[in-house]
Amino acid sequence: MDLLVLILQGVIVAATPLLFAAIGEAVVERAGVLNLGVEGMMILGAVAGFAVTLDTGSFFWGILAAAFVGAIAASLFGFLTQVLMSNQVATGLALTIFGLGVAALLGQGYSGQSTGALARIEIPLLSSIPFVGPLLFAHDPLVYLSIALVIGVSWFLNKTRGGLILRAVGDNHDAAHAIGYSVVGVRMMALMFGGACAGVGGAYLSTVQTPLWVEGMTAGRGWIALAIVVFAAWRPSRVLLGAYLFGGVTVIQLHIQGFGVDIDAQYLSMLPYLVTIVVLVLISNDKARANLNAPACLTKPFFASS
Amino acid sequence: MKKIFKTALALMPILALALPISVASAAEKTKVGFVYVGPIGDHGWSHEHNIGRLAVEKAFGDKVETTYVENVSEGPDAERVIQQLARGGHDIIFTTSFGFMNPTLKVAKLFPKVKFEHATGFKRAKNVSTYSARFYEGRHVIGLIAGKMTKTNTVGYIASFPIPEVVRGINAAYLAAKSVNPKVKFKVIWVSTWFDPGKEADAANALIDQGADVIMQHTDSPAAMQIAEEKGIFAFGQASDMIKFGPTAQLTSIIDDWAPYYVARVKAVMDGTWKSQDTWDGIGPGMVGIAKFSDRIPADVRAMAGKARDDIAAGKLFPFTGPINKQDGSVWLKAGEKASDGDLAGMGFYVEGVEGSLPK
User: Fold this and answer.
1) Which of B1, B42, B195 sits opposite A223 (nearest CB)?
2) For residue A273, what are the CA distances in angstroms to A224, B68, B149?
3) In this complex, do A257 and B189 lie within 8 Å of one another by their Cβ atoms?
4) Domains, chain B, with CATH or none
5) Parts of chain B with a pLDDT under 70
6) Which of A276, B107, B214, B326 lies 20 to 30 Å (CA to CA) from residue A194?
């Protein structure tokens, strides 16, 4: 039982960076923009979060810096794609490569140091409930924040006027423009939110999960986050499911190996991808409904004159 | 998707020593190229190769010009990068990961005048040498320490890919640990990557959750060491001294020292004496180093490990000496028999006592 709790706690730690990056990207894509630079923004967040935490001794400032740097990188992407009308796919890829390079440069003086991990907040009373307590009520603050973010985004997109405007911009930017909404303005805000989330996801990796800074440490998580958004059919609740599923299978397969179960490690390494695809097929067999969610203006450039 | 990672060709800035005289001699500069699988800031494998590159620069000054490309994924990308270097007029190119073997040979065929050096491989050609270090000698030493230091009798091992190099390390460490602690068990987790700090940390946590109190790794980042430090257990550094990441956790490190080899091979190119050859050096010639033993290791264990290190260096102790059975119980080496280099180079099985099955 204790081991199960430890395993599940490991799952949550592995899933949280993915969850942050994916929930941010979901909002961006709902506004009709595809930002493939998630990996680049994550790694910038990772280096900023680590460096500031180390220099100030405060995780709060570290995480805030990560969010800030992610948002800055995203607004650079926004300026290029929304104002200068560059191609979103190419610009996103460039942002990833740029981010990896800049992060390596900025991080030169910081590799080889350690901040120690962010402390867990154990909610009194609740966390002492056997099994459920340590599982649900004894995490670092960022885990709670990530869950709150999913709930908040879900509420914002579906229940508020702002969310409606954002979705309108993503589904039909010409119509949204015609009735007087600033398409570029909305998209810039969505992008900055997405960048901030990706930055925090990267910082989670460098200040909680590992915690250290090494070049290239995001190791493809940005791409997984992008895949999770599609997996989730752009729905926040499913982003949560996707991130936990992927993170979960990744960690559980490590444990299966540790127990010496007789399955080739290559199959186990495939498992997170395999399970995610199978679940995707199962939940999206209703094609009409799945398509309903895809933002109609995704990746389409917006010209105010048209 | 990892292809995206590949950074562009990173040319070393040519120092501003471009005096008229040195321009004249520029044509005679020996150009040396390096291809790394990870970032040079990985604090492990690629980091050490890069230190070797810097040693070449230091040794020959303005007589050499070195170039490196980092983060090159194993596969078609590697071929492209190696070809670019060959075409760019490099005299000798070091490709420093096992997975670069076939791309290196392919490019070598196209550029017969360029010399190639492939690390950890086993295929050679007229203009392709191979070189590797007998890391298993180091694994023997850390295995002895691990066997003595574990209280739960469980040693966690984070492995990358089931290639002979890695399997040999597991076997060497296990046999050594077993020889001093018959109850010791190894838990091996394959992470299917050389470099992914997050995943390496997850694997370390999984091993610790399952009772391991000493961690060994055959991956390139210091993440596992960092986790060991945090959880208050022991670990061994890999490729580099990782003491910065685990000031109390690190018992010792296996250190790769490529510098003397790189300097010698570049010198051979300059002198025109370069020949295709296979080099496999260990603790004796200094290609494999052992970092300072931690003070947390009891003095008698330190003495034992130190003696093993010195005996291996002197050629008095050979880590794979029979009797050793394979995992299925069949005899591999009879009593007193020593494994041949060929057997070691192609090792594709666990020895008796290692649990779990080896991924094929």
Assistant:
1) B1
2) 9, 33, 38
3) yes
4) 2-133 (3.40.50.2300), 135-255+288-345 (3.40.50.2300)
5) 1-27, 360
6) A276
